[in-house]
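User: Can you fold this complex?
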Amino acid sequence: MQSGVTPLHLSHFTATSCLGHGLAPTLAALLAQRGGLVPCAFETVTDLATHVGEVDGVDEARLPADLAEYECRNNRLAWLALQQDGFSTAVRAAAARYGRRRIGVLLGTSTSGILQTEQAYRRRDPADGALPDDFCYRTTHNTYSAADFVRTVFRLGGPAAVVSTACSSSAKVFASASRMIAAGLIDAAIVGGVDSLCLTTLYGFNSLELLSPEPCRPYDAERAGLSIGEAAAFVLLERTADNLDANAVLLLGAGESSDAHHMSSPHPEGMGARMAMAAALDAAGLAPADIDYINLHGTATPSNDAAEGRAVAALFGTQVPCSSTKGATGHTLGAAGGLEAVICALALQQGFLPGGINTRRVDPGIPLHYLTGNRQATPSRVLSNSFGFGGTNCSLVLGRPQ
Amino acid sequence: MKFAAYLDGIGLLGPGLDNWHAAQPMLAGLAPYEPRPLVVPAPQTLPPAERRRTGLSIRIALAVGQEACANGQLDAKRMAAVFSSSGADNDNCDALCQALASEDRQVSPTRFHNSVHNAPAGYWGIAAGAMTPATVLCAYDASFGAGLLEAMAQVMVERVGTLLITYDMPYPEPMHAKRPLPTAFGIALALMPTQSARSLARIEVGLTDAGPDELAEPALEVLRRTLPCARGLPLLQAVAHGADEQVVLDYLAPLRLAVTVAPCR
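Assistant: Here's the predicted assembly.
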């Protein structure tokens, strides 16, 4: 059970993924049911028959000179995303309003800037095996680098951490931030996540035989695995004001649980997933029937979608419209929770339910109302699922003011 | 703003620090501290297949977590958990990076799923049968402070017993030269919303700008300065003293944590 979340306002948000830089191209792609997955030609990875969701222009997004020590793909992706939708301006205004110590930075990532280390290992000194002098571990590879970078960009001085629980990371940051705000430690938080393509995840998921040779097909009867993507999603989370406009998006609840089952396979009945969804509803003070749309974790691996489908059906029945947007974005791992929270926020504001793409025939063994086409609707409350390796689960409930 | 909780159990493992009870007189200055190489047993609570796959960071995390629960007579299944570490399984990370820099980039699936920062949390859940929330943090050298704040927030806001498990392990070369962590080390604290017969102390945590406390024993002070999770040792030293005390712990300098320790018995 989680009771800590009072409604919080997603006062500003942005996302950058293979769908585009910022909200406008993201929304346009979702409305057109257009995906961003392409055959993998990332870096030197030409031997894997898989598709990836690579963000355009990351290598060109050089950091300002005073932040040069943070140069790595992950922080460049973060920097690129921070420039969109007026997000940086909003953070600076919040810092002026609340004070630099009163804004937390809680971000999710799974691999941070590890690509920098993977490349540095290729440049080891032939004589003594030493890594090159220009390699800086703290500001690139270390898991905290993502939050440290954002905190440094805005010269913030408050609490900060990275949550790194694999693919639930950037959903769990919403729960952490809401507790810190509820406890009065901070007044606002930058939450979200950043994860970028690297060799560890591409060859790692390949070793588990979880990569789909074609763009991933969530909840399809013939789904054959996931497509890896990269993304940065940021949300400024604040207490709700008295005069919210009708288009405001609120965090109504968050729920977390653990599978206690296996490191890389979900609980077959989705027991942990169900507990997280139930906890999120409980925190929001809502019943299953109050949810108008579910953004599924939906990785398109055979076991994830089967287990998640069972868990959703057990709690919500079979009639709630749901979909996975990973057919469009790929699985952005530690950024997925943040990216999909932003997609849910767009659905709430723009009045549509995003259909999942690439799915040709919904798995008849999974009794869900899976949307393969967009639907015009006015959802009031939606739920987003994020689950990860190690059996870590997090569900978020987002909604419009009632 | 201050967070308050009751400290019901402590787990500690480091070179020459075999467990909390053995270390308590050393931290209190009543017995000499003698560093010895650290040996960490494989966790017997895991099924054999999982046990074989555990690296040092997982073993350290499970050992101190189980010790804290045992000392506080707490059921791990009912505790939320906050893991915090500057790194993950650093041997595993080196092996993966070596493979990925070689001609043959095929990696082992076990190495890959053990590479996630939350691997110890995953094995903890399996070992304890705990389906409760578990989060996993990193804040580089501030990882102890970040973990303590998150755990205290869970106790305060969710009103749930929360186990803080912080741990570090060295990198092998060539990473060691870039991130020189001298030894494996772990600290666990069982933090509860209400006082019990087992409560050791009531602790309060707030933010401060004051300078960090150092440890009286020079060899322990070296550990505090060189290991992110050992930045929590002044808190354990205060508990070992058994008197009302306030200590300042390193966090995100100049931001630090002021911790008030009031013994319960």
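Residues 302-316 of chain A form the longest helix (15 residues). Chain A touches chain B through 70 residues (CB under 8 Å).
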